[in-house]
């Protein structure tokens, strides 16, 4: 295995010159830079990144902690983050907190011990309720979940607005009894619940909220149990996330119910399967790629300028109307 001294000897320069070329720092002539890079390629030299980080006290690793990696929303956001990190020559350490505050704490401690340059986090409701940036030894950007008064860089959807527009769409379709299945332990679910409540209040109608754990299986079971308590079907059912929406669809099919003939259904997240159901589903589409790119750009800016003012980027969801909310 070639060493940095071998590269220096092959290129006819000092070890310090090789170090400056590889780090992209300091003054090096163009001819010397070209000889060093040619020698690196000829000798198949790979720098010892761990040793470099130890010497400099810096790291090229970013942390990403999501609440549920099974959720396609986080898959898309993670992909966008990794794309930017790769283009910048950085690595991403991905962890799944599984909506568990203890697991979340474990991974945050691990990020500290790994001395990551910064972390992008989708926090649990418990952490968000007592969030203080000074509790963390690294720069931090919140994604998907953040309250308006949270003192942290964040990239979020305008959840109240999106849920309100979705509910108003159903009201315009003549729906009057609209059930809303939402993640009870999620800041996102609570914010979307607020938008739904606002739309129904404006129409003089009573909300029908159904708090659940935000997983597909829990949503399926919750819907079946809830239907057993109802004397009549609601006009519409809304899901606060894509995983919940999938569970509701499974529950409706299990009961032999059709949409929109028996009940209108709509929700959040424009996942591929929502377009191929029959009829296809009305959803709020989130700009996941933009959310991921914005989150990592915020983090890199915070790493470069730790004392800059906090920034909160709020994005707008797109209402996509399909057959599930258009009764014949």
Automatic annotation (TrEMBL):
Domain (HTH lacI-type): residue spans on this chain: 2-56
InterPro entries: HTH_LacI, LacI/GalR-like_sensor, Lambda_DNA-bd_dom_sf, Peripla_BP_I
Superkingdom, taxonomy of origin: Bacteria
GO terms assigned for molecular function: DNA binding
Coiled-coil zones: none
Keywords on record: DNA-binding, Transcription, Transcription regulation
Protein name listed in UniProt: LacI family DNA-binding transcriptional regulator
